[in-house]
């Protein structure tokens, strides 16, 4: 661990941060400072806005002068400091960019943000790659193991606009997934409430979702694209609500979990499937549609599948051929 000091600073609030709570601004701006310390320096009045004491819920206004005091002896973990060489690959995954936002085709296995033992996520990586960017914030999130379209706002106006569109369910998302078994064509919609639950593994805690009438309602539309022998089904999926793990839990509820799902999946099937080199969650956010705030027209962002997903589709389509007969026999036993 390395100790460092944060010097006193005066920050003039620009339009990008208007309306943001001062505690949230400081949590983002002072990333190495513990959350408890940030609330303490606000509560004791050493953080000032326009030379006045403020509460943690104060919302910043354009032109405000925010004073950040000297903060001594902040511990910085060296292993969390990434080199540009380690993260520059992210630039090659950007699929669209304008003055409002950028869209990235997030690879499977990369978290959207750091934390919980992770060195970095997409948002931290982009901020390191673009140190002069005044504002980069996630518009929404994807699970670490899910690939596909991820939006990053480049100004607060766009962020608030899309957050409101998400709240009103005006943003359409579509996913592609491979699920275990043959999906019933009559099951076009799953509408079941989801409840958050904690599961403990020794000293670790996992947050899961389960179907429960005591939870929050969630609705997902499923459409069959292709069936593969008696082994798997390729689905086009459209979530109407945006609950955490919604698609994964609804697929499990339908008794056709997504292939490669370590939390909600068919463990025995996935172990066999990995023998053929297919070791990922086969869930991909391939399309996102919203009304662009400037043009006021529908805007589509699409992300292509990665090579492993394509290879898996090819494998499943050829299960019945002589070349894949042995694989078919293995999978049909599950």
Automatic annotation (TrEMBL):
<dbReference type="InterPro" id="IPR036986">
    <property type="entry name" value="S4_RNA-bd_sf"/>
</dbReference>
<comment type="similarity">
    <text>Belongs to the pseudouridine synthase RluA family.</text>
</comment>
<feature type="domain" description="RNA-binding S4">
    <location>
        <begin position="20"/>
        <end position="75"/>
    </location>
</feature>
<protein>
    <recommendedName>
        <fullName>Pseudouridine synthase</fullName>
        <ecNumber>5.4.99.-</ecNumber>
    </recommendedName>
</protein>
<dbReference type="InterPro" id="IPR006145">
    <property type="entry name" value="PsdUridine_synth_RsuA/RluA"/>
</dbReference>
<dbReference type="InterPro" id="IPR006224">
    <property type="entry name" value="PsdUridine_synth_RluA-like_CS"/>
</dbReference>
<keyword id="KW-0694">RNA-binding</keyword>
<keyword id="KW-0698">rRNA processing</keyword>
<dbReference type="GO" id="GO:0160141">
    <property type="term" value="F:23S rRNA pseudouridine(955/2504/2580) synthase activity"/>
</dbReference>
<dbReference type="InterPro" id="IPR050188">
    <property type="entry name" value="RluA_PseudoU_synthase"/>
</dbReference>
<keyword id="KW-0413">Isomerase</keyword>
<comment type="function">
    <text>Responsible for synthesis of pseudouridine from uracil at positions 955, 2504 and 2580 in 23S ribosomal RNA.</text>
</comment>
<dbReference type="InterPro" id="IPR020103">
    <property type="entry name" value="PsdUridine_synth_cat_dom_sf"/>
</dbReference>
<dbReference type="InterPro" id="IPR006225">
    <property type="entry name" value="PsdUridine_synth_RluC/D"/>
</dbReference>
<dbReference type="InterPro" id="IPR002942">
    <property type="entry name" value="S4_RNA-bd"/>
</dbReference>
<dbReference type="Pfam" id="PF00849">
    <property type="entry name" value="PseudoU_synth_2"/>
</dbReference>
